[in-house]
Amino acid sequence: MPLRDDFLWGAATSAHQTEGNNTNSDWWDxxxxxxxxxxxxxxxxxxxxxxEDMELLADAxxxxxxxxxxxxxxEPERGHFSASALAHYRRMIDTARLFQxxxxxxxxxxxxxRWFSRAGGWRHxxxxxxxxxxxxxxxxxxxxxxxxxxxxxxxxxALGHRFFELAAEPGGAAAGIAQGRLVPDDEIGDLLVRAHxxxxxxxxxxxxxxxxxxxxxxxxxxxxGNEDAFARANYTWEDRYTEGAQGDDFLGVQSYxxxxxxxxxxxxxxPHPDNTLTGWAYRPDALGIALRRAWDTSGGLPLLVxxxxxxxxxxxxxxxxxxxxxxxxxxAVAEGVDVRGYLHWSxxxxxxxxxxxxxxxxxxxxxxxxxxxxxxxxAWLGAVAKNNGL
Length: 390
Ligand code: FCB
Known about the structure:
14 helices; binds beta-D-fucopyranose; globular; 42% helix
């Protein structure tokens, strides 16, 4: 079955990972306090170089670009909104259109304003009102945007929230991790579902966008005798968030790898020469598992692959991985799964949440001069896009 004529072929980034100097965000704070190993600093300087970034994607033949709006820039202090930051993101939307790239805009990609997190983050009694007020402000520039993702990987955000709380305990996060407490926090998960539902209502009233959120698909595999643990892991890590997508226009699917589940939950990836630079098992088939499962558990929501990619210094391996992943995606489509687009993670090598070594980009970035050098995988993916399939 051929892919839809309006299939989106693109690449994705997030603000904190690429813009640089996101100084009012909670992550900037964690970086300066040494809670994560490396700092984002100037990142890829995309706050100033987004035109060049988009031009490279468009020239290669892609027709979509997923990027995020940074709450910490829009509302650097509680109740203080920056008109110039809003204008900046509106220029990004206009620039994407100029290059005939469909903008896919994420409103929250892991980072929150420092003031929000210092006050308890999502646990603060006014957290949902605070997020909704930000969404209302941002909605003003989104009227004609086709695709909006409210919150990126709420399941991993619920894990991250737990991590930074463990890190604040005496002695740091290590003890809590050893006790097995680093799992997505259920209470935060519920709050994020409520935050998402409120954001959807605000966006529906004011925009014509297709609205959804993007869930990190685990592609868990049961090990014999551990079916109950498998079901529990799926609920904690994934299904709660798929349920939260009911009523949406699409579900974002983000897939990198697959993991077995044992009696005690997901089993960490054992060391293996094929593991990627993030230590994840090389599993391009995970995308097929993820798409079929998202389709089944969501009751048939249209799916958009909002992230898929590999951390490697070997670009030929990136092409191999992506070829295999797209083969699995096309097989799922042939079975009747409704997939609307494929957005590769990532457009650029960028700040991988405390680490610079894992390189996911279709484009290399010199961290001193910020010079962009497209890798062969960019032209390759552009050719797949122009062909609308492998
Ligand atoms: C996802 C994140 C994205 C990036 C990739 C590798 O969990 O959404 O920002 O870090 O993983």
